[in-house]
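Internal tracking record. Fields below are filled automatically when a chain is submitted to the structure queue. Please do not edit lines marked as system-generated. If the sequence contains nonstandard residues, flag them in the REMARKS field before resubmitting.
Queue: standard
Priority: normal
Entity type: single polypeptide chain
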Amino acid sequence: MKGLIDTHCHLDRLEDVPAALEFARHHGLAGMITIGTRWSERARQLALTAHDSPELRVWCALGTHPDHAHEEALPSLDEMLTALEAPQVVAIGESGLDYFHGTEAVKPAQQASFRRHIEAARVTGLPLVIHTRQADDDTIAILRDEHEKGAFPFLIHCFASGAKLAEAALALGGYLSFSGLLTFKKCEEIREVARHAPEDRLLVETDSPFLAPVPKRGKPNTPGYVMHTAQRLAEERGMTMEQLAAVTRANTQRLFTKSAA
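SYSTEM-GENERATED OUTPUT FOLLOWS
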């Protein structure tokens, strides 16, 4: 899997970070982005980038997951812009909408947080890592509304929906990132999207320690397992692993511009 980059992991949730990094390094992973889930805990993500090395790059994203939006104070734009200047911060998020667990009462907080993260992405040019679950219509509506105010880079992480969301995101210039879900038997709709998405908008990720791909399903996920998702994506698109690694790495560097510096 030489050259692959795990564009979405949660190193702060792993039981043994050094072991995970060694496994990834041994298997040729080129880099990873550890993603924030609470703005108030952004220092944890920044600290994890101390593991960065020329052999295995470690970057981070800062933001608040929608599940926590009603628990976190909404940061001001100025506060966000200051924190996002750090060289190791290559993205914003994860943010978005998640209506799976929440009630109507949490939707306003999620939507306000989502829009603030979009505002920061528009100003900085850093890509927004979007989490959306059972909220496709509202996600599309907010993306379109905010895009009218000015373009901003973004990706739909752990893509778990169908053609409607994919087409809307792609039409606005977004990228699609595929996780271990791509390998699950019941996720044919996701594979259908993956087969037909433009080659220059594809990314791969683990979302570790969650969603370990087949054949590691049921075990804690780790960034090195991105090779299994990449292999399945390559098979679905009729590519070799070398071609898939080159394409997704180029896409990662184009979207996460600070990672190419």
